Structure formats: structure tokens, C-alpha cells
């Protein structure tokens, strides 16, 4: 189900206070049009994270949890984000999906962890999701919707923190939509950037970047089966991204 946020939802969802406009992303060097800053997004993500954990059972399996946080720590260090506080949770569900939200909230579904054959493949998903955060894709998506649907004036409307009506939509903008049944795919441009940043982090962290290609190939093959991986419902055609990723890995001399 695709849900496009309404103007009202956007206004209600905007934790404004100060308006950020064109800023250079220090990690990618890109100039981005942003109406929301990292602190505001992190605040919203904290609420969405609490909701997600309340809504889906958490796995207490120590092996799964330590595997996730171990890979997570290596990837955040490679992304130069080790000084931020990160929190990890394994959601006890068969879904093949994962998300990383601004403010360092990392959620992996058990189904996704089981699907990965090794830590390299887990790192590929972790790297990709972290790439969305470093690329500030949630903020960019949020801002683009704000600008097109509500106008800049709306950016000055502050979110009432007690207004819980649009929580699910906000979670979706932040990248945790699957948990709440609201699917908001990132653009193709954001997806390829997340793929590229993801393998950069894998490489720096000492993982085998070829396993990222392997993972997406396996996922593509799996999509022919009775249960299409949820991850693919928000991601572009695997064939194209596998080809692009493979070319990128070679160009960078990672293999
Ligand atoms: Zn993605």
C-alpha cells in the first residue's frame, strides 16, 4: 500500500522550530534542500522507535542480538558515526526487512537476519540502511513533500508532541513504514546512493563487498517464490541495482 502524506499530515508531522534550507551534506558533499534538521528527525524517530517496539515482539535471543550489534558497530564506525548513540533491536517476525532511523535506531526483523547467510550479507543490509541515514534521505523526502504540497510556510508550523494522530505516517517517512503498514519507497536516486554508501562502509569495515551482490541476487530469486521479501516492495528492480552495484564495486577497486 502506498500512502502519500496529505498536507495536513505533513504540517502536523513537522517538528519545526528552525527552518533549514539548502545545506551541504558533510558526508556526501551533496547540496540538499532540507526543511528539517537531524535533531528534529531524531526526536520524531525516538517516538516511532518506541511505538515499533511496543507493536512487534522483540527477540531476546542473545546470539541474534549480539550478531546484530556487532555488525552494527562495525558499520557505524566505518560510516564515521561511532560517536552517536545507537540502539539495536531484533523484531521477532518472519518479515524479510530492516530499517535504520535517524537518531541511531536500528531494527532488523528475524526473517531478514535468518535470510542472510553470513555477517557480510547482514552488513550489506546494515550498510544500505545506514546509507539512507547518512544521505539524509528521510529528511530530503520529508522536505520535498513539504515544499511541493504545503509550501514553505508550513515549515514554520511546529509539531505538537502530544499529537499522536500521524505517528504511523511519520514513522513511514523516517523509513520504518513496514512496521506500521505504510510503505513509502525512497527514490531511485536515494536507493542507488544508499547502495553505494553501503558497500563503501562494508569495504572500510573489512567485509566482503561481493556478498552484497550475492544477497540482492538471492533476494531477487526469492521474489519468484510464494512470499516476496518485504524489502523488495520498497526497492527498485533487483536486476538494475545488482548491475549498478557490481559496476560500482569494480570501479572503486573493491574487488
Ligand atoms: Zn533502501
Explain briefly what this protein structure is.
This protein has 255 residues and is mainly alpha-helical.
Plain-language structure description:
- The structure is a single chain.
- The termini are far apart.
- The longest helix has 18 residues, at 38-55.
- The protein has a three-stranded mixed beta sheet with strand order 3-5-4, with helices on both faces. It has a two-stranded antiparallel sheet with strand order 1-2.
- It has 255 residues and is mainly alpha-helical.
- The protein has one domain.
- It is built from twelve helices and five strands.
- The protein is globular and about 40 Å long.
- The protein has helices spanning 7-13, 38-55, 62-78, 110-115, 119-134, 137-150, 167-174, 177-180, 188-204, 210-222, 230-233, 238-251; strands at residues 22-24, 31-33, 87-91, 98-101, 105-109.
- The model is unreliable at 1-5, 14-20 and 151-162 (pLDDT under 50).
- Strand 4 (98-101) and strand 5 (105-109) form a beta hairpin.
- The chain binds zinc ion.
- Zinc ion binds at residues 128, 132, 186, 191, 194, 235.
Shape: globular
Helices, by number, come to 12
Q: Tell me the count of domains.
A: 1
**Uncertain stretches of 5 or more adjacent residues:** 1-5, 14-20, 151-162
Largest sheet: 3 strands, mixed
Quaternary structure state of the chains depicted = single chain
Produce the secondary structure layout:
Layout: H1 7-13, E1 22-24, E2 31-33, H2 38-55, H3 62-78, E3 87-91, E4 98-101, E5 105-109, H4 110-115, H5 119-134, H6 137-150, H7 167-174, H8 177-180, H9 188-204, H10 210-222, H11 230-233, H12 238-251
Zinc ion is lined by residues 128, 132, 186, 191, 194, 235.
Amino acid at each position: 500500500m502506498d500512502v502519500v502524506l496529505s498536507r495536513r499530515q505533513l504540517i502536523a508531522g513537522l517538528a519545526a522550530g528552525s527552518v533549514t534550507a539548502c545545506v551541504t551534506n558533510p558526508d556526501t558533499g551533496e547540496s540538499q534542500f532540507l526543511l528539517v534538521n537531524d535533531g528534529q528527525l531524531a526526536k520524531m524517530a525516538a517516538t516511532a522507535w518506541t511505538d515499533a517496539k511496543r507493536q512487534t515482539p522483540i527477540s531476546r535471543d542473545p546470539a541474534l542480538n549480539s550478531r546484530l550489534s556487532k555488525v552494527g558497530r562495525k558499520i557505524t564506525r566505518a560510516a564515521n558515526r561511532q560517536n552517536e548513540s545507537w540502539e539495536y533491536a531484533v523484531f521477532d517476525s518472519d518479515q524479510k526487512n530492516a530499517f535504520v532511523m535517524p537518531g541511531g535506531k536500528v531494527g532488523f526483523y528475524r526473517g531478514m537476519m535468518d535470510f542472510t547467510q553470513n555477517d557480510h550479507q547482514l552488513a550489506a543490509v546494515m550498510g544500505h540502511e545506514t546509507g539512507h541515514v547518512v544521505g539524509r534521505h528521510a529528511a530530503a523526502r520529508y522536505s520535498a513533500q513539504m515544499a511541493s504540497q504545503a509550501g514553505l510556510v508550513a515549515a514554520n508550523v511546529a509539531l505538537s508532541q502530544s499529537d499522536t494522530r500521524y505517528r504511523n505516517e511519520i514513522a513511514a517517512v523516517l523509513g520504518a513504514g513496514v512496521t506500521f503498514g505504510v510503505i513509502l519507497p525512497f527514490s531511485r536516486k536515494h536507493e542507488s546512493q544508499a547502495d553505494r554508501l553501503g558497500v563503501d562502509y562494508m569495504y572500510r569495515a573489512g567485509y566482503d563487498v561481493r556478498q552484497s551482490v550475492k544477497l540482492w541476487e538471492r533476494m531477487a530469486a526469492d521474489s519468484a517464490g510464494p512470499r516476496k521479501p518485504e524489502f523488495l516492495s520498497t526497492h527498485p528492480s533487483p536486476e538494475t541495482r545488482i548491475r549498478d552495484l557490481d559496476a560500482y564495486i569494480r570501479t572503486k577497486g573493491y574487488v
